[in-house]
Design goal:
Beta-lactamase; two-stranded antiparallel sheet; 7 helices; mainly alpha; 163 residues; two-stranded antiparallel ribbon
């Protein structure tokens, strides 16, 4: 009679124990704990309000604090469109880029001091690229300085009912 081999027996025992531990672990751990993945933070916010009724039609993350950069750019565009409507500028009017505008942090189109951009391209750059350098150049052109333009934006915001 031959002796049973010890090594294959130990292998089977270890494999059976590992399988039993895996099954027991899965059976005692609730699925929500095993599959819990933290929700990604909302990077963007949006709100659509009916202007005539004031009713909110759509909102996502609308109460989260946000930096005012894009809001300032929207007001910059508003005042630029107003200047177009009033004939103070045309689509081909060249807006000079100052040293201050050229030094703005990203996002920018990398203008150098002394270069110029036409109004139509400036609108696209601010709208599509959120170009800081172009927004500052427009502010300086329309207001004479960033500070004076900021005062213009505040006055316009109050005039149209923003608080």
């Amino acid at each position: 009679m031959s002796k049973p081999r010890l090594f294959p027996l130990i292998q089977r025992f270890v494999a059976a124990f590992a399988l039993l531990a895996l099954v027991a672990g899965c059976a005692t751990t609730p699925p929500e704990t095993m599959l819990a993945v933290p929700a990604a933070p909302q990077k963007y916010a949006a709100i659509v309000i009916d202007g005539s009724t004031g009713k909110t039609l759509f909102e996502v993350n609308s109460t989260a604090p946000r930096y005012p950069a894009s809001l300032a750019k929207m007001m910059t565009l508003y005042l630029l469109f107003e200047a177009l409507d009033q004939g103070r500028v045309g689509k081909t009017t060249l807006i000079p880029v100052s040293d201050n505008a050229a030094r703005q942090p990203p996002t920018k189109l990398r203008f150098r001091r002394g270069e110029a951009i036409d109004v139509e391209t400036a609108i696209r750059a601010i709208t599509v690229k959120s170009a800081n350098d172009v927004a500052v150049a427009v502010a300086e052109y329309l207001g004479g300085s960033e500070d004076a333009f900021a005062a213009m934006m505040t006055a316009k915001a109050r005039q149209i009912g923003m608080r």
